[in-house]
Design goal:
The chain is 42% helix and 18% strand. Strands 3-2-1-4-5-6-10-13 form an eight-stranded parallel sheet, sandwiched between helices. Strands 7-9-11 form a three-stranded mixed sheet. The chain is globular, with a radius of gyration of 19 Å. The mean pLDDT is 96. With 285 residues, it is an alpha/beta fold. The longest helix has 18 residues, at 80-97. Helix 10 packs antiparallel against helix 11.
């Protein structure tokens, strides 16, 4: 049994589908009952559990062999890292008490090697260092910046021809398709031969924000203007988007970390996956 947390999220849902396509049994762990029906219709065993509820997690992990773990972002929380630490403690205790679990696959992030001043990325650092005393196989996958972050602006691009960015227009950044991430994770979860502890994964090309605007123009066949949101506008922009004070601080620190190069590859052999942004955008549109 493969245990998948975050099974109604972007990566988790695709991971469940990929495991099912490979003929693998899946137990999906979701935090919201209203989102469980679609998974049940797919023939998935579903457990509704808040990750801060250790008792419910114990039931979810029962008889599991591999477990996919993550630390979901919560931009509206005022105590995000308190929640992350409690979540990880529950993961630790549940795995200790579930003798059948022999593999942990954690969704980390590029930049997880740094232990300070990285905002939300620090949650990945905590996850990667949480299980050092446990005698189970541990694999952490660090994806680059998701293409889907850009597609979140699709309506604004289509209606107003504006593509916002927090990054300097000509700064190159490694990026990746979420579907490639989910497929890679599925392969890692079911592979039985010994594996590396850390995988850094990215798409076939690095892009600048200007590159992204040009690709939107070509795919949508319309003029697109890149609009850089300058640092002195970040706090106001995030406040308008509904972020908490803590959420604003963490996203600003993470953005600065990206700009300062802290999310560049930490390994000698990052894995390049095949989907480029144009292909991803065409499929999305």
């Amino acid at each position: 049994m493969n245990i998948v947390l975050g099974a109604t999220g972007q990566i988790g849902f695709m991971l469940v589908n990929n495991l099912l396509e490979k003929g693998q049994p899946v137990r999906a762990v979701v935090r919201n009952e209203s989102k469980a029906d679609e998974l049940r219709k797919m023939g998935v065993d579903v457990v509704v559990s808040d990750y801060l509820n250790k008792g419910a997690l114990l039931e979810a992990f029962r008889d599991g062999k591999s477990a996919f773990l993550l630390t979901p972002e919560n931009p509206r929380s005022e105590k995000y890292f308190d929640e992350v630490r409690m979540m990880i403690r529950n993961y630790q205790e549940v795995i200790l008490q579930t003798s059948s679990i022999n593999k942990i696959v954690g969704l980390s992030s590029m930049g997880a090697q740094h232990d300070s001043d990285t905002g939300n990325l620090f949650a990945s650092y905590l996850l990667e260092h949480a299980f050092s005393g446990l005698h189970v196989e541990q694999i952490f996958v660090r994806p680059a910046y998701y293409y889907s972050n850009w597609v979140g602006y699709l309506e604004l691009v289509m209606t107003q021809g504006i593509l916002p960015t927090f990054f300097p227009p000509e700064m190159k950044l490694s990026m990746i398709s979420p579907s490639d991430v989910a497929e890679f994770l599925a392969d890692i979860m079911i592979r039985e031969t010994p594996q590396e502890r850390i995988f850094e994964i990215c798409g076939p090309h690095d892009y600048t924000s200007l590159d992204m605007a040009r690709i939107f123009e070509n795919v949508l066949n319309k003029n697109v203007t890149l609009q850089q949101i300058l640092p002195d506008e970040w706090e106001r922009t995030l406040t308008q988007a509904g972020f908490s004070t803590d959420g604003i601080k963490n996203l600003i620190l993470m953005t600065k970390a990206v700009i300062n190069g802290k999310t560049k590859s930490d390994t000698s052999n990052p894995v390049r996956l095949p989907t480029d942004f144009r292909t991803y955008l065409e499929r999305t549109v």
